[in-house]
Amino acid sequence: MKRLLCVTPAFPPSNAADCHRVRMALPYFQENGWEAEVLAVRPERVEAVQEPELLRTIPEGVRVHRVSALPQKLTRLVGISSLGLRAGSYLRREVTRLLQERKFDAVYFSSTVFSTFPMGIIWKKRFGVPFFIDYQDPWWSSYHVGRGQKPPGGWLKYGLVQWSARRQEGRVVREAAGVTCVSPAYGEMLRSRYPETDPARFLELPFGAPERDFEVAAGPPLHQAPTRSAEELRTVDQGKEIWRYIGRGGPDIETALRIFAGVLGDARPRPFRLELAGTSYASGAAAERTMAPVLEESLPAGTVTESPGRIGYLESLRKLQEAHRLVLFGSDDPQYTASKLYNYILARRPLLVICREESSVARIVKETKSAELITFSNAEMGDGRWKMGGEKVKPEWREAMGRWLEMGATKKPGTDWRAFEPYTAKEMTKKLCGFFEEGLLAEDKEERNG
Questions:
Q1: What is the average per-residue pLDDT within 205-210?
Q2: Per-residue pLDDT tens over the stretch 126-158
Q3: Are 290 and 250 in contact (CB under 8 A)?
Q4: Would the CATH topology of 2-208+424-448 be identical to that of 211-421?
Q5: Per DSSP, which regions of 106-219 are E strands?
Q6: Which of 115-124, 156-165, 261-270 has the highest mean pLDDT?
Q7: Cβ-count burial of 341 within 10 angstroms (0-12 exposed, 13-18 middle, 19+ buried)?
Q8: CA 50 to CA 55: how far, in whole Å?
Q9: DSSP string covering 264-293
Q10: What pLDDT, in 10s, does the model give residues 88-130?
Q11: What is the rounded distance in angstroms from the CA atom of residue 170 to the CA atom of residue 191?
Q12: Residue 175 contacts by C-beta under 8 Å, 6 or more apart in sequence?
């Protein structure tokens, strides 16, 4: 049994989006010949919604090592909030201690805290332990350049982060035993930047479909009053259908929103209420509505609500299952891959997906026949704001919307579950472990050849 150390700074009970690769793989590592341990930051030092219920999804016996970090209230006084900067020294010391005490065959950095990645080079040189890195988002990205949109944190902070990324990314990628990428576009980007790196060291690996999470979500919630049944919830609101989108918002979602409103304006839907939830990474008063204002420009008053504050991950699964219909609004970034797509499919509700035609989301929907699909390209984006108007609505969009609305709200989609199986967390973990094995063999061969 080989031993793997997973460096995932934000980990349950924190429900940060970048914890889920490792969290969903933990139940399947051992059956694929790996014993995994996790290194994470103490939850009170992580700026994310705390969801104790997520701990139910972690298999018993898995070791999770916790380290501290500089307190956010203190570092924010000098303009620092990055978890990597606050926890970096603590993580380095703990991994050094772990590698000194016992043997690990590999280290896996699975996080969007990119400043941890260069640590792999240090530990590889000192202890001879190969490392793998996981691209859930681009580390060095030019997405915001020339788009007329202010990047998160402002241009100064964004510029400093990207300067650091450009300096460090190449060396880390070359030294890594392998790189997993949630999107094929990330692999293509890295191969073009570093053509001297063996293409076999890159693996396209989307997040796996979390079937076990739905089993946990089906149980009674922790610290929550009893809720009404899904059927009761579907019949409230004076007979209106409840449509839901749960996930982040942002300027890159705007094209999908406008297309949805434009196509829906051509249809004759039953009375409905579209509920948008968890659309901001912020919580409380800091969370702002970004999606409803776009839709309210054309949809009837009172048909759209937006609750931007973060919600629990397992709570989101329950909300998806309780809806009459689901809508997934995709990014206008062709490299974007929506891991939440699997949750929408597993909810087994009538699903409409609106996304870039180049996106892996469109490909997966087509393969699994799990949703009605509306795709768009640069031609529809124009200046970045698709202008609503009946003359611009494509016939195939109308047809997809019509099929979605005609589908009975209590009828399950005709998903091809055999085609969906390769996307499950179990199969993705099997593929990941095989990639680790190949990477270690390549490292051994390279070392023998000097």
A1: 92
A2: 999 999 999 998 888 765 555 556 666 666 666
A3: yes
A4: yes
A5: 106-110, 131-135, 178-181, 202-204
A6: 115-124
A7: buried
A8: 10
A9: HTTS-PPSEEEEEES--SS-GGG----SHH
A10: 999 999 999 999 999 999 999 999 999 999 999 999 999 999 9
A11: 11
A12: 120, 121, 124, 131
Residue 275 pairs in a beta bridge with 244, 305
166: left (phi over 0), alpha (psi -120 to 50) or beta: alpha
For domain 2-208+424-448, the CATH superfamily is Glycogen Phosphorylase B; (3.40.50.2000)
**Contact yes or no for 112/10 (Cβ under 8 A):** no
Q: Determine the Cα–Cα distance for residues 85 and 116; give it in Å rounded to an integer.
A: 9
- C-alpha to C-alpha distance for 377 and 334, rounded to whole angstroms: 9
**pLDDT of the residue at 273:** 96
Per-residue model confidence (pLDDT) at position 267: 86
Instruction: Name residue, tokens 């759209």.
Output: 304
Q: Which pair of tokens denotes residue 112?
A: 């969007």
CATH architecture of 211-421: 3-Layer(aba) Sandwich (3.40)
What pLDDT is recorded for position 157? 66
